[in-house]
Amino acid sequence: MSRIAVIAGDGIGQEVIAEAQKVLAVALPGYESTEYDLGARLYNRTGEVLPDSVLSELDEHDGILLGAIGDPSVPPGVLERGLLLKLRFEFDQYVNLRPSRLYPGATSPLADVKPGDIDFVVVREGTEGLYTGAGGNLHTGSPAEIATEESLNTRYGTERVIRDAFERARRRRGHLTLVHKTNVLVHAGGLWKRAFDDVAAEYQDVTTEYQHVDAAAMFLVNRPHTFDVIVTDNLFGDILTDIAAAVTGGIGLAATGSINPDHTHPSTFEPVHGSAPDIAGQGIADPVAAISSTALLLEHLGRADAAVAVSAAVERELASRDSGTQIRTGEVGDRVAADVAGQLS
Amino acid sequence: MSRIAVIAGDGIGQEVIAEAQKVLAVALPGYESTEYDLGARLYNRTGEVLPDSVLSELDEHDGILLGAIGDPSVPPGVLERGLLLKLRFEFDQYVNLRPSRLYPGATSPLADVKPGDIDFVVVREGTEGLYTGAGGNLHTGSPAEIATEESLNTRYGTERVIRDAFERARRRRGHLTLVHKTNVLVHAGGLWKRAFDDVAAEYQDVTTEYQHVDAAAMFLVNRPHTFDVIVTDNLFGDILTDIAAAVTGGIGLAATGSINPDHTHPSTFEPVHGSAPDIAGQGIADPVAAISSTALLLEHLGRADAAVAVSAAVERELASRDSGTQIRTGEVGDRVAADVAGQLS
Ligand SMILES: CC(C)[C@H](C(=O)O)[C@@H](O)C(=O)O
Ligand SMILES: CC(C)[C@H](C(=O)O)[C@@H](O)C(=O)O
């Protein structure tokens, strides 16, 4: 039996996760869930973000389903670093996965693209680079202040995520783009390029390409259909995935997985959107991204059939929508769950 | 008399700079120019990119007009670091300026935008951050390899570029957006935020906003009209300016200045596009970006009237184009120069 830890979190996180669980109930019948009350409420009550005891408990699960964290009452960065990044580092979630598709019914800000035109995956490194926290300040607040940030990169860390990306490319259209900034960041860029070229030699069936991050950012806007799989470092991935979300119709529909492909610790799956305190509690949040994150979870658990069923149901849900009609959170979950049930019965 | 150093460079650099000089001849009558043969040819002949003697000579000029550098025969990064970045650092060009406008006649990949809707400026820091080259590799090429890149930031360096951005915002629509990643890059982000808030107190007439770089990248795609001036660090600026170029119809039209606002050394002005060896020598390269870079040069030299005339002529040139017609490089320069001459006579 799969054991899923559920961190609904703040704001609309609560509402959308309830719908994701409706879908999971039919896609992964009998799964056991444990709810963890983390986020702004816990922090404001106790000053804690992710107590060690909770971290150990989470580690007993097969996967983590997360809604959204963040509230204006909490200083920016505290929950992000203390919860999201902490999970990535503690649970060695080195593959940060972001599928980007333009769904039927979704509205891209781009002209001349239609559903199906955009379909790529970003594989972002999740445990190295500029995200380690290395660096410091001197003479803080004075005119003499200096600040450093250090990007730390290992062959071990780059090779494993590159290998994962090649595997994904092989299961897709067989094209992998490495994105870095080798012409300026020569040290880290050199390491990434060497690791990439070495692994590429083992995947002769996958065609490869290199792009500087600035060019890739531009191409995501003016020719997104040319991408299949992108592999890149932690910070570049952070930026590129948000551009990807934008061109596929907004962050409201995107889901992401922070994945430990070796299953030595649980992986986290979540919608990309935030807690949206402005619309929380009204039952109008769109749970589609949260539901899509269950598809990524199912895939990771080896339930490819169920994952495909959820994705297909999400696609039908989006295609069936009238642009004028107000979303009712609960109805979306009911519809998608019924669709999935029909497919799997 | 203004003394302009001209580095036409490689590929179409030669062709587009010839047109820019036609325009400059009428916009800045009697200017003296010195041509410097730098780029792939010099490198392939001598192994040198920017000899010290040339650097000293360049330093005697009031401005540098650059076409494009780069050729497949030169290893990637060599000319970029040895010429472009060297000029930025040696000449303390701390303001990297990139105006982004959607011109009439230009085609944005975005739906639902029309000329005039997009009009903002990115002020990118040019002498600090991850561009200093600090960092290194250990056990290179082995499974034990590690690589670091260090972002170096000073209060001195951030404050001066932030101040420049506030000045520009004051001369425009009075809104300035700071872009960084303070929730993850806490050290550099903290420094940038402190410097920004301190300078903001002196510019009560400018409204301010902060965005994380990932959010800003997305907003540049799905609501670019909300930006007026953006100030950001060197690497974020590199990425955001290319997104800006994409949404305003491609890098082919964008111009940039690497500016030393204190005039202690010359500033460099150039089109954003590369040397495009594939179309070089055919007389079909669009010189509009190179011509626009003369407008930035004129502005920097205090010739605001001439700068406005060049921009207006470029705008008319783009508006008058038939999308089907092949550009003839030389004709574009003639038309724009004649237009500028008419305005200034
Ligand atoms: C919240 C933040 C720390 C996080 C990141 O920068 O990785 C987010 O932007 C993301 O992409 O998951
Ligand atoms: C060529 C390269 C070194 C340069 C940079 O990264 O700054 C370019 O992309 C730019 O934006 O001027």
Automatic annotation (TrEMBL), chains A, B:
Q: Which InterPro entries match?
A: ICDH/IPMDH, IsoCit/isopropylmalate_DH_CS, IsoPropMal-DH-like_dom
* Needed cofactors: Mg(2+); Mn(2+)
Report TM segments.
none
Q: Which UniProt keywords apply?
A: Manganese, Metal-binding, NAD, Oxidoreductase
Question: A single Pfam family, by name?
Answer: Iso_dh
Q: Which SMART domains match?
A: Iso_dh
Domain Isopropylmalate dehydrogenase-like, by residue range, is 3-336
Family matches, as NCBIfam families: PRK03437.1 (NF002898)
Name the chain's protein. Answer: 3-isopropylmalate dehydrogenase
